[in-house]
Amino acid sequence: MMGKIQFICRKPGKKSIRIIERDHKIISPSLTREYSFVFKRARGCYVYDVDGRRYLDFAAGVAVAGIGHTNPVIEKALHKQIKLGIHAAFSDFYAELPLEFSEFLLTFMHKQLDTVFLSNSGTESIEAAYKLARWHSQRKWVIAFENAFHGRTMGSLSLTKSKPVQRGRYSPFLPVKHAPFPYHYRMKMEPEDCSSYCLTELERAIRLKRGDVAAIFLEPVQGEGGYIVPPRSFVKGVRKLCNEYGVLLCDDEVQSGCFRTGRFLAIENFGVVPDVVSLSKAIGGGVPLGATVAGRKVMDWAPGSHANTFGGNLLACAAGIATLKFMREKKLGQNAQKIGKHMLKRLNELKDKYEIVGDVRGLGLMIGVELVKNKKSRMPAVEERKEVLCKASEKGLILLPAGMSVIRICPPLTLTRQQADNGIDIIEDSIKELNRR
Ligand SMILES: Cc1ncc(COP(=O)(O)O)c(C=O)c1O
Fold first, then answer.
1. 160 close to 177: Cβ distance less than 8 angstroms
2. Which of 254, 277, 406 to mutate to test the pocket of ligand 1 (most atoms within 8 A of CB)?
């Protein structure tokens, strides 16, 4: 028997309550809902609940609505395609639309990355990269980083090490060694010291496996782990080690890609070209779509060695083309850079003002605000983070958590300066209320 539902934050409206009650009866309890928001509709940077409340969305459907929610260009593309066909079985038959999407996608990438595998989600785009690395290298081991999040199917979960519950009772895992990631704020080190410490540990991990390392999986900016931006020297150092030891650099851009950090791929901010790239989330404009891209020489697997049923789905590809076109035409990368810079400046002012704001970091519109008990101890303010999220939602702002006590800010890339300011005002008011208490 289910107990009485505990509503997170303030009690939601009547319609929301009814849906939450139905949900709790039959939907898998493995999902995590941060607060009692019940989605009804969304447009641009706003989402609306079933009781008619409007919220400014700093979560963008978990970094999916890069071009804004329910963008008319997606509506148009889907309507046009739905009349022509939805599913072409691209793994077994040729079709022009998935090809057109892939050709267009490659125009956003370094010319060395010229071959595409299509799928439907982030985890699938990582599974493809993982299997490709093992196929190509014929090696067994893979290195990922502490705090990393690469997905939840068994291959990508083996790479993931962000929250203990995600790995929970699922061992044994695939052969993955985790090396430290330069989270210098939490490791209480200077960025460059932290970077060289982590690179030394990474090299040690590679050597330990004696020529049997296929790939290193890297989020250029760690997402779920806490929106952690590594020093440039670290990402460059990872590339150098990959070159020295003949290991593939697999770049997870599922969350950080598609101009979220200003550049199409976050790794471009560090002046590094990877061997394999995994993309999803924002690339489909809200429609499930994943892509794994590598050079032809790397993507050398044999027919039948990897495929799927829905990869190259026609609706997804139509949405993907419309999304990428919109991003390029509207220069969303530039907007992410400009608004992101402004937000970082304002959030840093909060850091100077409030003891609870320990660290502010980010690239473009991928920004983390780490809450701590106090600046000296840097103890994660876990409960307080939860409260800030609740209070913000009550005031009409959707935020998500990341890491132990980080507020994750990943709004649509169409965000205006006014909307950015409105959201930050709400964050500040929520922090002030905590302080008063
Ligand atoms: C960096 C990264 N990789 C992979 C994934 C997995 O994507 P999906 O949830 O679509 O399987 C996520 C999801 O949040 C992610 O942030």
1. no
2. 254
* Residue 363: strand, helix, or coil: strand
Residues 285, 68: contact at Cβ < 8 Å?
no
pLDDT tens, 117-148?
999 999 999 999 999 999 999 999 999 999 99
Mean pLDDT on 150-164: 97
CATH class of 72-329: alpha beta
Q: Pick the residue whose CA is nearest to atom 8 on ligand 1.
A: 122
Structural domain spans, the chain: 14-67+331-436, 72-329
* Among candidate residues 121, 105, 80, the one with its CA nearest the CA of residue 318: 80
| Residue 3 pLDDT greater than 70, yes or no | no
**Range 213-224 burial, b when 16+ CB lie within 10 A, else e:** bbbbbbbbbbbb
With H, G, I as helix, E, B as strand and everything else as coil, classify residue 300: coil
Question: Domain 14-67+331-436 falls in which CATH fold?
Answer: Aspartate Aminotransferase, domain 1 (3.90.1150)
Other Cβ atoms within 10 Å of 311 Cβ, number? 25
- Separation CA 262–CA 424 (nearest Å): 20
Q: Is the CB of 340 under 6 A from ligand 1?
A: no
Please name the amino acid found at residue 232.
Answer: R
Quote the DSSP letter at residue 229: P
Query: Average of pLDDT values for 25-53?
Result: 94
Cβ atoms 374, 359 nearer than 8 A: no
Verify whether ligand 1 is closer than 6 Å to residue 149 (CB atom).
yes
